[in-house]
Write a sequence for this structure.
């Protein structure tokens, strides 16, 4: 039997590599495409920050370099500033992108946090660029939401009722420990004479008192914040009611029926606040588990490119309140009006259907929650099932207008065109969340606080779109030439 011959393997032999880093990667590599796209964006909001300095110190890294580095890293699912910094040494694509410069992790982290407010305008620029390239059609837009873990544990949350109990208990414990410390001081004075000042606290008690005082201060601050939110919410309800009464009077309409609202100015006992990230909330995720999270929203164009045309993030668990703002954002970003808009049953309300109707957008929102993957049955089948008592459960009591809107939407979704249009939803928004969470690895936000996490979610959506544009630039003939002309 002949002896197998292997290719030569000499790890210590010097490698004859091209001297130009740009020759180390194929011409259509994603890093080049991301660089070309960023060159088309207006980065003046980011660059303007550097004009406010006094000119002293070492020259900063170029903001275009750091923007490209951050965008490319997120598009590849690399979000840790330390890992990004290491990649500039270890990964050829990162090294090419930075032109062999190596900003440290603190520079990258500070740059990301400093420019969070500029990310939404940049997201809108990327959406408009995708539109100019013909990647956004707006024939159908699907909106959906997903719960993303906050950078905080749900075990660091406390209810208002528990805050009150704990505040009382800690107050008593601190008083007892202080009294014990005073007793110890008196005993030492009697034993050692009046040379003691009386201010010394035994070491074992001092630490316990300090720890409880800090925790008490934290709980009181959280409790005060909940009470302030309750007062502000009550004031907003009263103000809205008064504004409606004034509007009716000015328009000559009948007075608003019913009594004036008297909202509670004290939080309910089950109101909660997290000590690590107070803006996050406990929400139920898709697995029915309760998690400390934010509600990440996205509106996705149903073209094959799956461009996110609208994004938002809130700490409200319910999805319905987010439809109207998203419709407005998409129209402002694109300057166009979608032909159809689909969402799942969590977004249904008479108001939301009215918002879409008023905007001239065909609404496709089922009033009844459907098992995942199941479409509304045809009209004939639905009538047979209802006659047999097997139809979808209906609310026992609802207003005539609400009932009529639900009936009209059910009838619309039971037609063949309605079923076909609504079927686009599950192949539009849901795959995008899968790509962001499964392929790119978003499981938990890095930052804390609603404003910062909103910027972080915008960055994830922006870089999703960058990846989709890069994919189109590689596969569609003539698109790169069109990019150069935009």
């Amino acid at each position: 039997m002949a002896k197998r011959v292997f290719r030569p393997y000499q790890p210590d032999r010097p490698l004859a590599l091209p001297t130009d880093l740009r020759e180390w990667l194929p011409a259509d590599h994603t890093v080049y495409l991301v660089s070309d796209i960023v060159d088309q964006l207006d980065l003046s909001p980011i660059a303007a920050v550097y004009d406010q300095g006094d000119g002293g110190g070492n020259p900063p890294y170029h903001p275009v370099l750091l923007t490209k580095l951050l965008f490319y890293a997120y598009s590849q699912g690399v979000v840790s500033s330390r890992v990004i910094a290491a990649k500039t040494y270890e990964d050829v694509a990162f090294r090419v992108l930075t032109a062999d410069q190596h900003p440290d992790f603190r520079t990258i982290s500070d740059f990301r946090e400093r420019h969070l407010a500029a990310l939404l305008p940049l997201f809108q620029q990327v959406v408009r660029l995708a539109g100019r390239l013909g990647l956004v059609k707006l024939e159908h837009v699907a909106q959906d939401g997903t719960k993303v873990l906050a950078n905080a544990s749900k075990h660091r949350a406390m209810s208002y009722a528990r805050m009150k109990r704990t505040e009382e208990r800690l107050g008593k414990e601190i008083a007892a420990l202080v009294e014990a410390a005073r007793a110890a001081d008196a005993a030492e004075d009697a034993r050692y004479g009046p040379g003691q000042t009386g201010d010394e606290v035994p070491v074992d008690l001092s630490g316990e008192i300090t720890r409880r005082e800090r925790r008490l201060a934290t709980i009181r601050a959280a409790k005060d914040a909940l009470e302030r939110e309750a007062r502000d919410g009550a004031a907003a309800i009263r103000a809205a009611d008064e504004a409606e009464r004034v509007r009716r009077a000015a328009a000559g309409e009948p007075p608003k029926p019913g009594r004036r609202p008297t909202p509670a100015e004290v939080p309910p006992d089950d109101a909660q606040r997290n000590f690590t990230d107070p803006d996050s909330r406990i929400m139920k995720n898709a697995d029915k588990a309760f998690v400390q999270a934010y509600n990440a929203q996205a509106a996705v164009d149903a073209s094959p490119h799956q461009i996110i045309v609208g994004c938002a993030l809130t700490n409200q668990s319910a999805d319905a309140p987010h439809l109207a703002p998203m419709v407005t954002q998409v129209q402002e970003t694109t300057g166009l009006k979608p032909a159809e808009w689909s969402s799942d049953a969590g977004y249904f309300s008479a108001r939301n259907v009215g918002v879409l109707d008023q905007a001239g957008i065909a609404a496709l929102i089922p009033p009844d929650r459907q098992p995942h993957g199941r479409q509304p049955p045809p009209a004939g089948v639905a009538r047979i099932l209802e006659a047999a008592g097997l139809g979808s459960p209906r609310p026992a009591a609802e207003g005539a207008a609400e009932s009529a809107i639900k009936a009209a939407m059910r009838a619309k979704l039971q037609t063949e065109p309605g079923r076909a249009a609504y079927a686009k939803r599950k192949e539009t928004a849901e795959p995008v969340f899968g790509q962001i969470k499964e392929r790119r690895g978003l499981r938990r936000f890095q930052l804390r606080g609603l404003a910062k996490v909103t910027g972080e979610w915008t960055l994830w959506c922006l870089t999703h779109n960058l990846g989709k544009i890069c994919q189109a630039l590689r596969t569609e003939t003539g698109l790169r030439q069109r990019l150069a002309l935009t």
